[in-house]
Design a protein that fits this description.
Strands 1-2 form a two-stranded antiparallel sheet. By secondary structure, the chain is mainly α. Helix content is 72%, strand content 1%. The longest helix is centred in the middle third of the chain and has 31 residues. It comes from Coregonus suidteri. Keywords: Membrane, Mitochondrion, Mitochondrion inner membrane, Repeat, Transmembrane, Transmembrane helix, Transport. Its main location: mitochondrion.
Length: 298
């Protein structure tokens, strides 16, 4: 039940934040490996990107990749948050009744690794589909998938089972860092808000405030890993399945830093917060409330 509740909470958040994920993906791929001023800017900021995608691709364009997005959230966050719930229930993350920074970080990172490995094939497909756009506003490499199942079948047919895990070298550090930052900051913030007694005991506002604090920490820690992950997943590959732009996580990180500077690693930061921020707040709020409801029914 921990896994089901966690997956359901993440899916609920995804319904609201998927358009922001589309915008974030496009902005992270815009001007890939090009110096500032040497490429055409289709998306000037989050709001302009929303307007442009809606105008050219229609409102449906803002919900591209929703199906793989929901599947990814259910399995990846179901496993990640579900695993963490079990670890938390065992009392591991506390020392003398207080949240332990070291233990919570380790637990969050470990849960993130498991979730990232399981969800990587769906994240690969989600990235491809979300970046598919009309040629007039297209950025990065354009795949021509007809849907999630078609994409999975095509990648498997061309590159085998291992081809479905292409880009996982970036997914693991991305999700493990994000998971550790999210779950520790959420647990510590929740404990702090409870100590301050700002809200009544058991109020949903405790989880909301803790989620808002956690969202800022997550975006700051995760964005460089997110940019690298998006680019590794979306890069074109040769007939053997080998990436044509990057050899792996380290190569992508160093090339992006060399060509685009530190700002390249934080490309789409505004879009990242508008997507990761609400998703973190909503998923943690739904997760916390669903667990409380389940415990009350038992």
């Amino acid at each position: 039940m921990d896994f089901i509740l966690s997956g359901a909470a993440a899916c609920g958040a995804c319904l609201f934040t998927n358009p922001l994920e589309v915008v974030k993906t496009r902005m992270q791929l815009q001007g890939e490996l090009k110096s500032r001023g040497t490429y055409q800017i289709y998306y000037r900021n989050v709001f302009h990107a929303f307007y442009t995608i809606g105008k050219v691709d229609g409102l449906a364009g803002l919900q591209k990749g929703l199906v793989p997005g929901l599947v990814y959230q259910f399995f990846m966050n179901g496993v990640r948050l579900g695993s963490y719930s079990i670890i938390e229930s065992s009392g591991y993350i506390h020392t003398d009744g207080r949240v332990s920074a070291a233990k919570t970080t380790v637990a969050g990172a470990a849960a993130g690794v498991v979730g990232a490995v399981m969800g990587s094939p769906i994240y690969l497909v989600k990235t491809h589909i979300q970046n598919q756009a009309t040629s007039s506003i297209a950025v990065g490499h354009q795949y021509q998938h007809q849907g999630m199942v078609h994409a999975l079948a095509a990648i498997h047919k061309q590159h085998g089972i291992l081809g479905l895990w292409r880009g996982s070298s970036a997914a693991v550090p991305r999700v493990s860092v994000g998971s550790a930052a999210q779950l520790y900051s959420f647990a510590a913030s929740k404990e702090l808000v409870i100590d301050l007694q700002v809200f009544p005991e058991g109020s949903w506002l405790v989880a909301l405030c803790a989620g808002m604090i956690s969202s800022v920490v997550v975006v700051a820690a995760m964005t460089p890993f997110d940019v690298v992950s998006t680019r590794l997943y979306n890069q074109p590959v040769d007939h053997t399945g080998k990436g044509e732009l990057y050899k792996g996580f380290g190569d992508c990180f160093s090339k992006t830093l060399k060509k685009e500077g530190v700002t390249g690693l934080y490309k789409g930061l505004g879009a990242s917060y508008f997507r990761l921020g609400p998703h973190t707040i909503l998923s943690l709020l739904f997760w916390d409330e669903l667990r409380k409801l389940w415990q009350q029914r038992r």
